[in-house]
Structure formats: C-alpha cells, structure tokens
Amino acid sequence: MGDICKLFTVYALGSTSFGGFIKTLYLFPNYLFGISIFMYIRKKMNQRNRYKLLADTFIMTIIGFILLRKLLNVLLAGRTIPFVTYVRTLGYFFVNFFMIMLAIYLLRLIKGLSIKKGTCLIPLAIFLYIIIDFQYTYIEALGLDAENIFMDLLYILFMIMMALGAYTQEKYQFEFGVRSYERNEKSKAHLVMQILFLSAADIILFFIRFLSENEFFYVLIAIMGYWIMTATFENSQLDASLLESQQTLNKKLEEQVAQKTQDLKIANDNLKKLSSTDILTGLYNRRYSNSFIKNMTADYEKSGQRYAVFAIDLNHFKPINDTYGHDMGDRVLAEFGHRMLRLPKNMVGFRTGGDEFMIIQCDVINDAEVETAAKKIQELLCTPVELDTYSFNLSGSIGVSLYPKDSSNPDLLLQYADAAMYMVKASTKRDDYKYFDKALVPSVARHNNLQDLLSNAVPEDDFVLHYQPLVNTQTGRIFGAEVFPRLKKEASFEYSADELIPVAEEVGLMGKLGTWIVQTALEQFTKWNEKYNTEFYVSINLSALQLLDSGFISFLKSESSRVNYPLKKLGLDISTTVMLNADDSSKEVLIDLGNFGFKICLNDFGGGELNLSNFLDCKFYVIKLSHSLIEKADKDDNALLLAKSIQSMADTMDIKTCAVGVETDSQLKKMQDIGIFIAQGFYFGKPCDAETFENSYLDTHN
C-alpha cells in the first residue's frame, strides 16, 4: 500500500506539467459523469443506501485496482515508460474502474430501465464511454498517439446516446427510481456467492503466480473487509427496517386510533342526537327537555335573562288515530313537529308525550313577546293539516309559565305550565292559552306531595282498600260495593282514587297497585260471601294503562278463577275518558274480558265526551251516570230529561243504569222517578275500610 501512495504522490506532482494537465482535461467528461452519478445517487437514495453503495464500490475498486495494476505491469513488461506517465495511468485506471463499479452497482438497483423510455440510454452510454477510456489510457501510457478516428466516433456516439436519453426523458417525463437494499434470503445467498467467487479468484491468481503473496493478502483483506462491512450494514439495515416497520405500524395504529376516535365521536354525536331527539317529529324529546331547561336556568340566573315555557296538548287528535290509523296519526304529529322547527330560533320545541309538546321561548325581553309567541303557537296548532286528500282541523290547549316570575326552579316551571294547560283543557274553551296563576300553587304542591308518597310506596304496607255501598233503591238493600284505594298515611292531604291512579301510573306503581287491589278485593268479598251466605257484587276500576298490561289482564283472570269468584258478580269499571282514547288493542281487551264473563261497566256517562263507536263495540253491563249530571238533573229539567233519555236507551239495549254521586233525598227520588233503581253516593254512605263497611252496612242489612 506504501508503493501505491508513493505512485499517487508522483502522479499528483507529474500532473502539474502542461502535458499532464491537457491529458487530464481531455478526460474531464469522465469526472463530470462521476459528479452526475453522485448527484443522482444523492437525490434518489437515502443516506444509509448511499453509504452502502459507495463503500461497496470503493472496496471492489480497491480489489480491482490491485488486479489492474498487476495487469498493467504485465502489459507494460519490457517497455520503458516515464514514471509520471505510469502513475497517471494508474490514477486514470483507478478512477475509471471506480466509476465503472459504481455504474454496475447502480444498474443493479435501478428500476424502470427501458430503451423505449430512454431511461437506460444515459447509464449505458456513460458505462461504454468509460470502458473505451481504458483503451485510450493504455495506448497513451505506451507513448503512442491515442487519437483515433474510430474511437472518437465512439465517443461522439455515446455522447449522442446520452443526449437522446436526456431528450426522451424530458419530453415524455420518464424517470427511473432506485431500489433500496433489502436483507433477505436471496441477498444473503448472493453475498456468500460473491465472497466465495472473489476468494476463489484471489486464490487461483495466487497459485498461478499472477499475484504475489502481498497482493494476495491485500485482496483477501479487502474481500474480508467487504464481507464484514456488508454483514454489518445488513444487520443495521435490518434494525433500521424493523424500526421503520415499527414506526410505520405505530403510525398506522395512530391513524387507526385517530380514525376510530373520530368514528366514535361521530357515533357518540349520533347517539347523543338520537337520545335527545324525537325521531318522529325531529323535535327534542322529553328526556332532553329537563337537562335543557336546567342548563338554561343556570345560565340565565347569572345573566338575569328571562324565558317562557309553553306546555301544549293537542285537541281532537285521538279520533284521527282511531279513524284513520296510527300511520296517519304519526304523519299529523310529524307535521306539527315540522311546523315547530320553523319557529324563530329563540323558540325551541320538544315532544313530551304522545300528543303533548312543549316550547321554550328563550331571551324574553317583555310580556308582550310572550303574548305574541302564545298567539303564534295557537295559530300554528289551529292551521288545518293537509295530508293527501284529507284535511284535519285540530287545536291545542296551552299553558304558560314564566322564569323567574313564576318560579326560579325549572321543575316547578314545567309543572306550573302543565297546571295552566290542564286549566285550559278543563274549561269550556279548550282552544286557548292561559298563564300560570299563583292560585294553582296548592294544587301543584298537592300533586308533588303525592308523587313523593307514591315513588317509594309498597301497596301491601302503604295502602288500604275502601268500599262504597251499591244500593238497590227499590228494596233498599246493599247488594255490593265499589272499591277505592286509599293511602294509609296521607301527610298533609287526603287523596281520592281519581288523584291516586294517574300519579301511580306516572311513577310506575300502577302494576303492583292494580294487582294488590284485585287480590285484596276478591279475598275480602269471598270472605263476606261465605260469612253472609250470599253473592255480593264488587266493582273494580281499571285504568287505561292496565288495559294495555297483558300481565295484569292474565292475573285478573287467574285470580278470579283461583278464589272461584262468580264472574257475574265482578264488575270492571272503565271511565268514558278511557273509552274516548281507547285504541283497537284496548277495545279488543274489553271485548275479551266481557266474553270471559266479567261485567264491563262504563263510568261517568253523560259527564264528558263519548266515543260511540267504542261504546257500541263493547258490550256494557252497566252505565253509571256521572255525578255532575245527577247534580244538574235535580235542578235542571233538561238535564233530568237527558238522564231519562240515557236510561231509556240503556233499557232498550238491555244495559242497567246506575246513578253515581247521589247525595240528597231529592236526587234519589228523581232517579227513581225516571226508572233508575241502582245508586251509590254519600246519601247511602262514604267509602270506608272493610271493618267499618261490614259493621255499618253488612251486619245491619243481613
């Protein structure tokens, strides 16, 4: 290696002569090609692959240079040439061989080589150009004139090839890339074969005396260095690939996590929307209304702003459902929902029940705004609904409460708006709106107190059954009783069954309470029947919710069979309100109960609206005239005439008539005069517990 350094030193000094400079300048294109290749490598390959390519090329050049030097010495044997020329020739050989090896290694990695695309013309032309430089350098080293027309033509041809390749690539925008080094079984086998081949060649050349011992070991050391360097690189490449793969995998996982997070966010938003939105109308639902009004109250408490709550109940909606079906009813509700969605932005709509809605007017400035909003809502509800060829005229009962005028408690505001709405429904003009009146506070407090009592009530522990006598006015005998649930401890208020049942339904107690009423009443009347050797008639009220409860209906049938109570003496009372709103399924249950053998009774007849279609379909055993009609009939001849007409109609249909709410002797006589001989009311006795009822009525009448 010392000889080689010495040769390069002499070459460097010799090249400073004018002749050497000219010859070096003549080979300048080679250096430009080398610079171009380096620039290409820098652009196309990453740093690790660049180092690998240059290291492989340099070591193979060293191995090749040792052989070329030996070959040059053999070719120049016996010839006398200047030392400077010899060194310069070796230098040219080294540089050219380095570029050739660089081109060879690069060509192995280039992808997309094509003559048609011109991508192979440039590297091929550079490779051939450098090859013929060996011949030029060798002739020049012999001291001969290296200029040759044929060789010059080849130089020109290869230059044209380069120009053509560059033109083709530029015109058609063709380019080729470079493969990265890959560590796999194929690359490992190729490396082993390459090392074995080089080692075998080194040994053969040594044994044929082409290489000296020193040269043999120089080449062998270079081969071993190449092997060690390549193995080290491939291991580092593997580590880098694993790291890159891990990073890529992590990135993909991060992207997947980000995507899943986004999907979950979208799904959560959709769930949140679904959980807060009524699908049929597009309005917010009852569940969301509570959190909405509470959040707004918290904000307005700080800012001092005001808002109004409008509780809405549709009038005349039930007949649409009954006559045209639920699909048409849903379309009507959806239309009102769409109308409410078109209200000004400060008016937010909610569907709080079947045909019940609520609108909250935000940012109220004065009472005039609330008045305008109430009229706008009233107009919205009264505008006919046009669907297909049908036109439906509905209206709404509207109750209004104001924050903070009526209350700063959002729960109370909702209850106050409902209370005002029920005032409208109870009035003669149901198509109206009313503001909450402080006079309603006691009734709201009464309702809240009952809710608290029933929320945790247990029927067996907290209720007692009361009995009100049913009397045959012709004989004066008590033939049965109607049963009413009462709370044992009623706190500040005393609640009637009409108040208990709706609230029990609200708090989810009606199922257990209804079962307890049936069981307790049948067991009690069974004891009385056995004790007094008779068959007392028992009348039990059923709510609309119980008619929809298949479990309760099954229990009612099984319990009456268990105690063997005579079904002809078991009356099931249904209010006209239930009949008015009864859908097909409820009506089918009533018909089924009647066919089973129960006596179906219709309460409050003549005191409100009546669905005649449902009335005719269900075979009633008794109709009970309402307390209000009995009271009016005592003072108003027209009311008395109406009561007589009802009694005559019932007689014609083989239905018994009962006067409910008889409180005076005058009312009793008038009912007897028109042919009604079954009655109940305070005139005969108030509802009382079983012991009082037995002592006061049964013992004295039997």
Structure commentary:
The chain is α/β, with parallel strands linked by helices. The protein contains 27 helices and 18 strands. An 8-stranded mixed beta barrel has the order 11-12-13-14-15-16-17-18, surrounded by 5 helices. Strands 3-5-6-4-9-10 form a 6-stranded mixed beta sheet, sandwiched between helices. A two-stranded antiparallel ribbon has the order 1-2. Helix 4 packs antiparallel against helix 9 (213-276), helix 5 runs antiparallel to helix 6 and helix 8 packs antiparallel against helix 9 (213-276). The radius of gyration is 53 Å and the shape is rod-shaped. The termini are far apart. Mean pLDDT is 80; it is low at 1-18.
Protein traits:
single chain; 702 residues; 27 helices
Q: Cα-atom Rg, whole angstroms?
A: 53 Å
Global outline: rod-shaped
Strand content: 5-15%
> Could you report the average pLDDT, rounded to the nearest whole number?
80
Order of neighbouring strands in the sheet with most strands: 11-12-13-14-15-16-17-18
Number of helices: 27
Q: What is the β-strand count?
A: 18
- The span between the termini is 141 Å
Instruction: Sketch the major β-sheet.
Output: 8 strands, mixed, barrel
Helix content: 55-70%
Which regions have little confidence, pLDDT < 50, spanning 5+ residues?
Answer: 1-18
Query: How does the helix and strand content classify structurally?
Result: alpha/beta
